[in-house]
Amino acid sequence: MSVTDTTTSASAPTEDAEEAARYRRDRRMKVARWMLPSLVLVVTVLAWHLYVTLWEVPHYILPGPVLVAQSLIEDWGLLYPALLITGRLTLLALLFAVIGGVTLAVAFTQSKWAEMSFFPYAVILQVTPVVAIAPLLQIYVENAFVAALLCAWIVAFFPILSNTTIGLKSTDHNLEDLFTIYGATRWQRLRYLAAPSALPYFLGGLKIAGGLALIGAVVAEFVIGRAGTGLGLASTLLEASYRFNFGRLYAALIMISCMGVVIFAVMSLISYLALFRWHESALKRE
Amino acid sequence: MPAARAPLAERETLLQMSHVEKTFRGDIVALKDMNLQVNDGDFISLLGPSGCGKSTALRLISGLMTPTSGNIRWTGGQGNGDLGVVFQEPTLMPWARVVDNVYLPFRLRGTPYSEVKDDVLEALKLVGLEKFQRSFPRELSGGMKMRVAIARAMVTKPRLILMDEPFAALDEITRHKLNNDLLALREAIGCTVIFVTHSVFESVFLSDRIVVMAARPGRVIRELTVDAPYPRDEEFRTSADYAGFCRQASDALHQAIGEAA
Ligand SMILES: Nc1ncnc2c1ncn2[C@@H]1O[C@H](COP(=O)(O)OP(=O)(O)OP(=O)(O)O)[C@@H](O)[C@H]1O
Ligand SMILES: [Mg+2]
Description:
The structure holds two protein chains of two kinds.
Chain A (H helix, E strand, L loop, with lengths): L16 H38 L10 H10 L1 H35 L1 H16 L2 H11 L3 H26 L3 H9 L4 H39 L8 H10 L3 H30 L11
Helix pairs in contact in A: 2-10, 3-4, 3-6, 3-8, 3-9, 5-6, 5-8, 6-8, 8-9, 8-10, 9-10
Chain B lengths: L12 E12 L3 E12 L3 E5 L6 H8 L7 E6 L8 E4 L11 H12 L3 H14 L15 H13 L5 E5 L7 H18 L2 E6 L2 H7 L2 E6 L4 E7 L8 H4 L2 H21 L1
Parallel strand pairs in B: 3-7, 3-8, 5-6, 6-7
Antiparallel strand pairs in B: 1-2, 1-4, 8-9
The structure holds adenosine-5'-triphosphate and magnesium ion.
């Protein structure tokens, strides 16, 4: 009987065939992740351009990509300030949503009475369509920007509130017991146990709230900006549609959608940076 | 190494449970008339079938629950740092590095890290994890996580450490290793341990007293003494003495199960 030697000889490659194949596949996937969407974009824009030129579609029905690009450049002096306003509106709404949502969530978890008293109203505020509230805000709040901000805030704050509340309550029971045994104070419990446990939930809420803040801002601009106060990108878009300036309309639309993408990307990055060391959701499968 | 432990009969009382009962929702008797004297330096195993109130006993001792009747008295009073606990799960904070997890008991007492840095590092060294102090729990194996939990329980040099089936979820080899290490640790810091387990072998290997419990209602039915000297090692695990103690404990356990059935 002989024993087969299973150790590899010194001349064997450090990587076996399977590993090498996996490595190649990973590289291919990495490139494809950027290449494929870019390709789709190019093809779509090209098809759009050909359709508009070959079929001679009038620009007030569908402006071609060239016209949109032209508007983007020529109207930049108009669009850029509008972008700043919408951006400021969205970010401020998000900021206040974070402050309000987290504060309220902490209050709710610290006091059952506070939660029982106010949670139903938070829900009511959330389920009432913001489009229905916006005109009222416009009446009661003189400053159009503040009215729009309130509007966007109402939409953005709920996911932060509800997610953070769930997160603060989702602490490990054994860790709770451990903190009790070591005589932790309320503050220590919040700071060292509840807050870190809630972080992944909060960041999930933040991602949703970022998108909602933009939607809230757009809705607010549609409703409140209509009074001729000329707020941001969405107001510009609406105005352009009245004037049949479809190049500018599409340019504003593209800018809004780019803003949404940037917000989402930034929120995802924040979430990744905060969690990648320890949380399962940020764990890459080996 | 600290001075040799006093013989069983001459140890000072640390804790006394007298006629302790715990009833849940008015009709589930988790623990009935439990009397247990815990002495300084004891290694006590609570051995019994599922549902016999072992965890309940530990929760009562740790003050997480109060007895329905009877009382638990610490001689000399219980201070803030007198207790360390290890649960069946490692129960680490996943967001904190190993060293911060071990520092936790001090942090909750308000002691700055600079003052206890040496204690924390020494505890990590004792469990053999000084190289992993900057790691996150996620990066450790099950056995290593449990070592961190043990380091955390003993970092304050408590008078009593409570362990609730700490090694039940580990594989046999890791478990043996941790049993050996636990005894070595106890020699090093000389604490008293109450250890909950389902395993006859584990209880005999580790303890000098075994309290056998039965379920429905949860109660103590026998107490055995494992009269074998420490330090115990792999040699003890294969000795005739060990086999004899295992048979005794096993018989008592079967009696416990039989009575309950
Ligand atoms: N909080 C509780 N509420 C109601 N019943 C409980 C509670 N905790 C424990 N019990 C009951 O008390 C009895 C003893 O429970 P305990 O957890 O102490 O048993 P155990 O010996 O630790 O069992 P195991 O080996 O399965 O961990 C069980 O019947 C259990 O269902
Ligand atoms: Mg138990």
